[in-house]
């Protein structure tokens, strides 16, 4: 019987009008099929400077806070930054932090030290240069006790919602040594934890398919090493 | 100009047929608008025993692995369990682990110790009883170095994809003291990290809106304490 319970086996998954599902925002703009959003969420590191309408940032934030958290503790906090001076200051910190990590991991001091054949670092290196120019950065933060399991699911909601609105994103991190400077920059109290800095902006270039290992390589069935039924 | 780049400001976000966006699976079944999936992803703890078609589990796994990871490291691993005996054994472990945590945190030995007025634990307590009967459990695991930032985004993709197929889910954890027994149960090597146990099943009851704090309470604008423009 295809009655009250939606998505029963053998029953079509029926949609209520999306606008009815949130009291705070009108989510009818989120009409992109979820399959398209998930399967074309390429990390976008090249962004146009065009500002993102506040109403879309609100939608993206509203989507983020809908993610589950342990015991509905809702310890996640979001800091949205669109102020040009503050983004410029953060971009300087991010650039310095990115290169400090390359120095520590590989002894690189700057672009001249990147081996000529290395293409894997180019997009991230360019983002380190361009972070200062992105139209928005959303920081994923938390109140104690900071369990990532209660915070990070919301970051994926935020990025998928952005994708559905044509807004590119990429989850980036800061070296923990730089958390103090980050806190100073934005007046963030010491008790607040840092998880992600997610630049948001309209892409230069395209969304599109991503490159991932076949599921048969990363998925196990009934026991470790058990082949998936579709292998 | 509304040309190649989708989702430009002022341009409609146009959809290519979803089937073109993944080489491994046909994602046309993921037609639910992303807004509906995100805004009705209520944690489902009461599940019917009906099995989930393998083809749907494959879609859910394919969606999970599309999430971004640091440097596309793809350290996430998924163990899907549908075997009834194995789920029964895991359910026994989960029940024991759940109560051990309540014993440690609150001194509770069993349902008789839960104060009569306490309604917040009832759903989780019932899930601890019923885990043995769910049709499927997806374990979110990882290869070293286990950074949650490179693993947990895929868990949210998995749960949203399940939601879009009418399949309920809830992210649960095990006490770290029980990881060893979990590994023995499924032959999981010591190097593999544990993040979530996500039961999957068709809901008894309904999906629907969730209760979250207003975004104005958990979102800061340009600096800590800065009010959101919609406050």
Task: Please give the domain count of chain A.
Answer: 1
Instruction: Identify the overall geometry of chain A.
Output: globular
Compute the number of helices of chain A: 7
Overall SS class of chain A: alpha+beta
Beta-strand residue fraction of chain A? 5-15%
Notes on the protein architecture:
2 copies of one chain form a homodimer. The two termini of chain A are about 35 Å apart. In chain A, strands 1-2-4-3 form a 4-stranded antiparallel sheet. The first copy, chain A, has one domain (about 25-110, about 125-200): NADH Oxidase (3-Layer(aba) Sandwich). Helix content of chain A is about 30%, strand content about 10%. In chain A, helix 2 runs antiparallel to helix 5 (about 150-165), helix 3 (about 85-105) runs antiparallel to helix 4 (about 120-130) and helix 3 packs antiparallel against helix 6. Chain A has helices spanning about 35-40, 55-65, 85-105, 120-130, 150-165, 180-185, 215-220, and strands at about 75-80, 135-140, 170, 195-200, 220. Chain A contains 7 helices and 5 strands. The longest helix of chain A has 23 residues, at about 85-105. With about 230 residues, chain A is of the alpha+beta class. Residues about 1-20 of chain A have low confidence and may be disordered. At the A-B interface, helix 1, helix 2, strand 1, helix 5 and strand 5 of A face helix 1, helix 2, strand 1, helix 5 and strand 5 of B. Strand 5 of chain A pairs parallel with strand 1 of chain B.
